[in-house]
Amino acid sequence: MTLPGGIAARPAESRGRLHAEPDLGPRGPRDAFQRDRDRIVHSVAFRRLRHKTQVFVAPDGDHYRVRLTHSIEVAQIGRTIARALGLNEDLTEALCLAHDLGHPPFGHAGEDALDEALTAHGGFDHNGHTLRLVTCLETPYPHFDGLNLSWETLEGLAKHNGPVAKPEWALAEVDALLGLELDTWPTLEAQVAALADDIAYDNHDIDDGLRAGVLPLDLLLDQPFVARHWQAIEERWPDLPLERKVKALVRDQIGTMVGDLIAETRRRVAEAGAETTADVRGAGLALAGFSEALGGEERALKRCLYANLYNAPPLQPVRREAQRVVTNLANAYLDDPRLLPDAWHRGDDPRAVARNVADYVAGMTDPFAIKRHEALVGAVELPEKF
Q1: Considering the domain boundaries, does residue 357 fall inside one?
Q2: Phi (first) and psi of residue 53, to 5 degrees
Q3: What is the domain count for the chain?
Q4: Whether pTM exceeds 0.85
């Protein structure tokens, strides 16, 4: 059963784009949200995700996920959910593909370091930087900066995790231009994209953590959600090799989460009596989500992953070295802006310099950040395995 027809975002009813596009050439059969998705896929920032950390820094194994593969997996999950609910699949996919564009090198470790280095200048937030990338820093068009995405896509990127009470400076600037109504909830497409992200990394990080030997299986099996699925797999295929059981576990858990999310979202929409996108924005709460029971299990699983994977002792030296690299790079460019490439000299006052540094460092891939550090500061000592 899909949701009421008026609840899906409709490209024909889009609030439009910041810049008129009368002379960009043939447009083809695509609607507004399809063009947004394609602009994201063709962007430089999207290609750079190939060399940006998901869990493991500059992974030397071909089988570990990076930001690019993670974003593709999120898009697949998001599109599946959107189709089942009768939402706009293209808008959902665009939001899923773009949600991590603003990540600096080395994932959250790099983000923490860059934020601290720029504290005096407003800090750094990857979500705000995503908006800055798609509205300012990408320059594929002749007469304006940015990808000129539709209002609905920008709204979804700005607040896919819910209303934003205190936007940081990058998001505040975009909001001042476009009026993104940051105090309301976004479309269901954006809410689904955020949850698809949770589903993807909850499960795929388990896969990578087990493969790397960092995440102990016995600790995972202390989680009721995992134990329940593992037991079912053991009963179905007792003689299956461990590696295949893990793949089945990840697959089954994703299926359970997706099914629960679809059912719970239908229930919430019906309970709220929502029939339009305006109803969704004005509901005062998230209408997409997990059931109370599964939501509790999912939060417990996240706590387990933070304790035993993201903050695992074997990864701490890597995190510290990654933060050192980003901190040193940011400080080097702040101390001597002449070290920036010529194209990044866009103002001499401290505020402009800090933004140039943030934009430049955040755009680096893991390998490029390592090379720049070696050239400007000194050697980088990242363990080979992680």
Answers
A1: no
A2: -60, 135
A3: 1
A4: yes
